[in-house]
Design brief:
Layout lengths: L4 E3 L2 E5 L6 E5 L2 E7 L5 E8 L7 E4 L5 E2 L2 E7 L6 E8 L2 E2 L4 E2 L13 E3 L17 E3 L22 E4 L1 H5 L12 H6 L1 H7 L3 E4 L12 E3 L2 E3 L26 H14 L3 E6 L16 H9 L23 H18 L3 E4 L18 H7 L8 E4 L19 E4 L1 H12 L5 H8 L3 H4 L7 E4 L8 H4 L35 H19 L4 E5 L27 H5 L1 H16 L20 E4 L14 E8 L1 H4 L5 E8 L5 E4 L8 E7 L11 E2 L5 E4 L3 E8 L1
Parallel strand pairs: 14-15, 14-23, 15-18, 18-19, 19-20, 20-21, 21-22, 22-23
Antiparallel strand pairs: 1-2, 2-8, 3-4, 4-8, 5-6, 5-9, 7-8, 10-11, 12-13, 16-17, 24-25, 25-26, 26-31, 27-30, 28-29, 28-31
Helix pairs in contact: 6-7, 8-9, 8-12, 12-14
Length: 691
């Protein structure tokens, strides 16, 4: 290509419509941006860090094809370049038009965003262009890496906040709170047995938005569920962010995780953006093409199914393409293995807000060529009251966070006998919900970032969110938690031992259920958020993992590690079918029992039960048959369980007992002559019979 126009020594010409965004073409940068309703567009070019652009280039009318403005600019030094746009058009808020030719706008397809390179650094509030696009080289050397490709049935998912994982002074690493810091903790993840990390949002967001204080402490947009740009990594999460190297640092992190057998899933937020409602800032989408990107009410105000002020118009053809382009980009350029979609039910809504049976966005992602082996995980509800757990449109590609699993396990372990019949279904893979699909459609979890940590679940009856500055009104009130007798920390050894048993009871349930298990980072060593169940704004010790707890609760860590090792060693726990029938062992593959084997009223309330997996060595490709017997006692008194009769030559071994011993897979302790077992109050015991 060669230039056809020149202004102030800068040469340019008509550009390529695709790809959208700013991309390198030989010795030029191609700029392409969509706007249906704009009447004109101006490209703004800045020297890095300068307040005013050094050049404003209005797109000639002949540079517009359809609704796309495209221009190629030559001789730019991309190392020192920042850019944006100004859009002119109608400004009639009641009609949904928000054009303002004086407001600089961030490119929706920018691959890097400046302005928040150093986490928490206060910005110049007089700066009218806080978030600027940058052009990056897509020349990273992956050294043969590609998305890793672990089968969903084999995943052990570990949900983490990139900053909070290592920010605490006790983390013992050099680059605290960064992508590089995650790399330093890879040996720890491997020791635990994790093979998949799920990062809370890492797309560029503004931690400084909506500034406020509580008890003299600055509150931040800490979680990041308020996206500024979908194509760029959070620069403030990179130790090298100030140097503009956040993309390479994240790619290094993904590559190193892959080298160590760990996949990467990103938590993505396509349901809303950081622009909020009609009183929010104009950063990008609102000023570029408001009526395309957002769902609007007839009076021009914003529909709010997200609870965050606006709702993305996800099934609009252009927005649909933008989301698909984004995911393809992260898979192809960052080798991301999967995505968890925040408030995914919003993506099923049409322009009027009605849920669709066959949402075109979800169908296109399910069948997309580039995303063909990418994990797609839905948080199948939204803030508008739509709850689709078990009914989310899937095309046998989508899996779901199983909120019903979480609630049922919590209720039972705290002592709700009435939910026992439902619990049997949850352990068996939730066939009542996913019967036409597979157990791996169910992402099983007890805790996640949103709510109590596992330790707090057994230490607090009530939320304690006072530090959030909302008079403790925020956060869920119905947590199905139980403090074991004292609210918060206590020195009472009996209560502390009970809390450990309760945590280990829930962990045992999780790793011995069909489906895909997910744990919250820090739960494996009893990390606390001091009763805060909505720490979205707490960039401090409330949210940061306190690694001193690992030494204090080393027993819980070992217990969790041993459970994970057991799950990995026994593929019967990871079945992709709802098979309970008899296999070559001569036993049902999955069976439920009372305190006496084979005697069970599956419909009756109960606080005690057992279940057994019969692992067929021929079917599952292991060395020999085995029988896994899990005895559960949620009662406050001890109960004696009879053990089932097993084939001649098999012996019972102890794998784990909550609050007591646990063994790494293969190192279980042999129990001579065992025919029954007394399971103590609020305890779970796992035995394995093998030759």
């Amino acid at each position: 290509s060669f230039p056809t126009n020149k202004i102030n020594g800068v040469e340019y010409r008509a550009g390529h419509v695709f790809p959208f965004g700013a991309s390198l073409v030989d010795d030029a940068v191609n700029f392409s941006v969509y706007s249906k309703d704009a009447v004109s567009c101006t490209l703004l070019l800045y020297h890095r860090g300068e307040k005013e652009p050094y050049l404003e280039l209005t797109f000639p009318e002949e540079f517009r094809i359809g609704n796309v403005f495209a221009m190629m600019v030559f001789g730019l030094n991309i190392e020192e370049l920042e850019y944006g746009y100004k859009m002119d058009g109608p400004c009639d808020h009641e009609q949904g038009f928000y054009f303002d030719k004086d407001i600089p706008l961030l490119d929706p397809y920018a691959k890097s965003v400046s302005g928040r390179e150093i986490w928490g650094k206060e910005s110049d509030t007089n700066e009218k262009f806080q978030h600027r696009g940058r052009v990056i080289m897509e020349d990273y050397d992956w050294e043969g890496d590609r998305p890793y490709g672990i089968a969903p049935k084999n995943l052990i998912i570990y949900e983490m906040h990139v900053r909070g994982f290592t920010r605490h002074r006790s983390s013992g690493i050099k680059y605290k709170g960064t992508f590089a810091g995650v790399c330093e903790k890879i040996p720890y993840l491997k020791e635990l047995g994790i093979n998949c990390v799920e990062f809370l949002p890492v797309f560029e967001f503004d931690e400084l938005e909506n500034p406020r204080y509580s008890e003299g402490k600055r509150l931040y947009n800490y979680w990041g569920y308020s996206t500024v740009n979908f194509f760029s990594p959070k620069a403030g999460y990179a130790a090298s962010g100030a140097c503009g190297m956040e993309a390479d640092e994240l790619k290094n992190t993904v590559k190193l995780l892959h080298k160590n057998g760990i996949e990467v899933i990103l938590d993505v937020v396509f349901n809303h953006t950081a622009e909020g409602n009609e009183n929010g800032p104009t950063i990008s989408y609102r000023g570029i093409d408001n009526r395309t990107y957002y769902l609007m009410k007839p009076d021009g105000s914003y529909v709010n199914y997200s609870g965050c002020g606006n709702t993305m118009n996800c099934n609009n053809a252009v927005v649909r393409s933008c989301i698909r382009d984004c995911l393809r980009y992260w898979v192809s350029e960052y080798h991301i293995d999967g995505f968890r979609f925040d408030l995914a039910s919003i993506m099923t809504r049409d322009i009027d807000g009605n849920p669709m049976i066959h949402p075109p966005l979800l169908e296109s992602l399910a069948h997309d060529a580039v995303l063909g082996s990418t994990k797609l995980i839905a948080e199948a509800w939204d803030a508008g009251g739509l709850y689709q757990v078990g009914t989310f449109p899937s095309w046998n590609r989508w899996s779901e966070w199983n909120g019903r699993y979480r609630d049922c396990v919590r209720r039972f372990i705290k002592g709700d006998a009435g939910c026992a019949p439902e619990l049997y279904m949850r352990i068996a893979g939730s066939e009542d919900m996913y019967g036409g699909r597979s157990p791996v459609a169910s992402i099983n979890f007890i805790t996640c970032h949103d709510g109590f940590s596992l330790y707090d679940l057994v230490s607090y009856n009530e939320k304690h969110n006072e530090m959030n500055g909302e008079d403790n009104r925020d956060g869920a009130n119905d947590n199905n938690s139980w403090n074991c007798g004292v609210e918060g920390e206590t020195s009472d050894p009996d209560i502390n031992n009970l809390r450990i048993r309760q945590m280990e009871n829930m962990l045992t349930m999780l790793f011995f259920s069909r489906g895909v298990p997910m744990i919250l980072s820090g739960d494996e060593f009893g990390n606390t958020q001091f009763g805060n169940n909505n720490a979205y704004c707490q960039d401090n010790e409330i949210s940061w993992l306190d690694w001193t707890e690992l030494e204090r609760h080393r027993d819980i860590f070992r217990f969790t590690r041993n459970l994970i090792s057991f799950r990995k060693a026994h593929p019967v726990l990871r079945s992709v079918v709802f098979d309970r029938g008899e296999n070559n062992t001569g036993y049902p593959e999955l069976s439920f029992h009372g305190e006496t084997p084979w005697q069970m009223d599956m419909s009756a309330p109960s606080l005690t039960f057992a279940f057994m997996y019969a692992e067929d060595h021929q079917k599952y490709g292991v060395d020999s048959d085995s029988f896994i017997y899990v005895m559960v006692n949620a009662h406050w008194e001890a109960h004696r369980f009879r053990l089932p009769i097993i084939p001649t030559g098999f012996y019972w071994y102890l794998s784990s007992e909550s609050g007591g011993r646990s063994f790494y897979a293969g190192d279980e302790e042999k129990m001579k002559g065992a025919s029954d077992w007394v399971v103590g109050p609020r305890m779970t015991v796992v035995l394995i019979a093998k030759m």
